Structure formats: C-alpha cells, structure tokens
Amino acid sequence: QLQLVESGGGLVQPGGSLRLSCVASGFTLDTYAIGWFRQAPGKEREGVSCISTSGLGTNYAASVKGRFTISRDNAKNTVYLQMDSLKPEDTAIYFCAAGRYCLGFVSPRGIDYWGKGTLVTVSS
User: Fold this and answer.
1) What are the percentages of helix, strand and coil residues in the chain, rounded to 5?
2) CB 43, CB 96: distance < 8 Å
3) What backbone torsions phi and psi does residue 17 show, to the nearest 5 degrees?
4) Which of 36, 58, 100, 120 is deepest in the core (most CB within 10 A)?
5) How does pLDDT run across 49-96, given as a tens digit for each residue?
C-alpha cells in the first residue's frame, strides 16, 4: 500500500519544540518534493513548508519562518519538520504530502500522496 505516515505530534508548552516525521511506505520519497501542511480547528488547510527532491531548496510560510526547519533523509525515506519556539497558534493537525516540485512555493505542486496527519497542540 502506497502511503505517507506522519508521527511526532503531541502536547507541548508555548516556547517548546517538536519534531515531526513523514515516512513513505510502498514507494521512495527521493523523486518527490515534500510539503508540510496544517489545518487548525475551523480554518482551511495551509501550506507550511516545502523541500525539493535534493533537499537543497526549502520554502517556508511567513508565519513559521525562522522557527520551523524542514529536512529530509532520502536514505531513511523520511522528511522531518523541526518546530521550535512553538506558539498556541501553531496548534493544528499537520499533514505531509508528496508532489512534483516546490519552485518557490510553500507547498508542492502536483500532489500524488497525502498522509492522514498528526495532531500538534501548543498549550500551557
């Protein structure tokens, strides 16, 4: 079965950190640009970050730039999202997706696969 599986979500206090992982099953990630999205309660899904197939190109939404870092380890078929200095407004379900390319966008174009998401709650 071809799928993406996210993990690493949880409850964290404001100012804390979490690292999310996105692992591919049934296919390899190295030919895909990978993006992280999030959807907060009552809001639309938004792009958070995108990383190119090589990992040399990364883009971030303005709301997370300087706090979040996207990276990939193609040998492990995994993409990460390191989230630091978390704020209550970062609370959301976080999804990863595999697409064709980033090209300056904060979400990949031509998405083929989506994960089911992992919940991040930032609260004291």
Assistant:
1) 5, 50, 45
2) no
3) -130, 155
4) 36
5) 999 999 999 999 999 999 999 999 999 999 999 999 999 999 999 999
